[in-house]
Design a protein that fits this description.
Length: 380
């Protein structure tokens, strides 16, 4: 069996490694001509770390990331509301890692090329569409006269997936939460023990929220979430790489936390991106025949609870497991396992996002614990 994977992101590269581990040939088609370590920080939850550990990547993860010990919830005066142990400290079998997305992608890319061969990831290959019959799938590539033929196609080409658009035409715009996000990475000494993620909320409903966590010995990733509109269809494109402006944020975060200089965090950021918090409603089915979806292409979700990349990693393992027998029917089994599970995470993320800043510490702790129970079960 030969599987083409559209997209060399975290999900696509992990899928290639997982398929190789069960004896299935995989080739990754990436539209960019050069894969560079771009982006900001992300979190890998323990169930995703477990999957990457089974692929023999635990040592590299420990070298690249920070093992998060706790999530600490605070108010805008810096006072502690409650804390939530994470990773090994929270009783999980594996750590939770905070890591730079680009460095993680580079690590996965190196592993794919080392194990599958240099030609296993082909850059400058923009997928334009596909057609299939009972025996194969043929993938059209921009600028190439002849398509590439394989047994299966996996669309891991992100939230603006070309594969998804052909499978589900006329789906409409992304769904906006009404929240705009600013994300950055700042060179500065981490706060507390260097292994704590902080979630700082204003005192009222509709107030801004700040999330910050170290992704290296002297590197802090941060996310500012600001409600600016009503939820609904997103007008226009998401513009993922749109540069943000520190001056737009500073008036909203005149907080004196004591243990973190928020103004310094924002103004000294090495990269500052601004984009809307969006997702899509779950699909009634992901793929058809010899074609399916994975990661953000299958289930774009709010970046709440660090679930986006982690769910893509779990997708990759389940896909490989169900295809290990060599039958295309494994795609349907993969969807049957993962579609309802990821739909539950989308719903939990939306509910978590709606919880406002006027909650008491006890209520916030209860909501957070309920969220963890709902979403951790979907990582199995």
């Amino acid at each position: 069996m030969r599987v083409l994977i559209a997209g060399a992101g975290i999900g696509g590269l992990t899928a290639a490694l997982a398929l190789h581990a069960v004896g299935v040939e995989a080739v990754v088609l990436e539209s960019a001509r050069e894969i560079r370590p771009l982006g900001v920080g992300i979190n890998l939850l323990p169930h995703a770390v477990g999957e990457l550990t089974r692929l023999g990547l635990d040592g590299e993860l420990a070298r690249l990331g920070i093992a998060t010990r706790e999530n600490l919830y605070c108010d805008s005066s810096g006072a502690r509301l409650f804390s939530e142990p994470r990773g090994l400290a929270g009783g999980y079998q594996h750590p939770q890692y905070s890591v730079h997305r680009g460095r993680l992608q580079t690590m996965l890319l190196s592993a794919v090329r080392a194990r599958l061969g240099e030609d296993a990831v082909r850059t400058g290959m923009r997928v334009e569409g596909f057609d299939q019959d009972a025996d194969s799938v043929r993938v059209g590539i921009s600028g190439r006269e002849r398509p590439i033929e394989a047994d299966l196609l996996v669309g891991a080409d992100g939230v603006h997936s070309v594969v998804r658009a052909q499978l589900h035409p006329g789906e409409g715009p992304l769904l906006w939460s009404g929240v705009r996000m600013w994300r950055g990475v700042t060179r500065m000494n981490p706060f507390f023990d260097g292994r704590t993620m902080v979630i700082v909320r204003g005192s009222g409903d509709g107030d801004a929220e700040l999330i910050a966590y170290p992704i290296g010995p002297a590197s802090v990733n941060w996310v500012a979430l600001v409600p600016v509109g009503e939820p609904g269809p997103l007008p226009g494109d998401a513009h993922w790489n749109r540069p943000g402006r520190a001056e737009d944020l500073l008036p909203l975060f005149d907080w004196n936390l004591g243990w973190l200089d928020v103004a310094e965090l924002i103004t000294r950021s090495e990269v500052l991106l601004e984009y809307p918090m969006v997702d899509r409603d779950p699909l009634p089915h992901w793929g058809h025949g010899r074609v399916t979806l994975l990661g953000d292409a299958a289930h774009p979700m709010y970046p709440v609870g660090a679930n986006g990349a982690s769910q893509a990693v779990v997708d990759a393992r389940v896909l490989a497991t169900e295809l290990s027998g060599g039958s295309p029917a494994g795609l349907a089994r993969y969807e049957g396992i993962r579609r309802d599970a990821t739909a539950e995470v989308i719903a939990a993320n939306r509910e978590m996002q709606r919880t406002g800043g006027t909650r008491s510490p006890r209520e916030l702790a209860r909501i957070t614990e309920t969220y963890r129970r709902r979403t951790t079960a979907q990582g199995a």
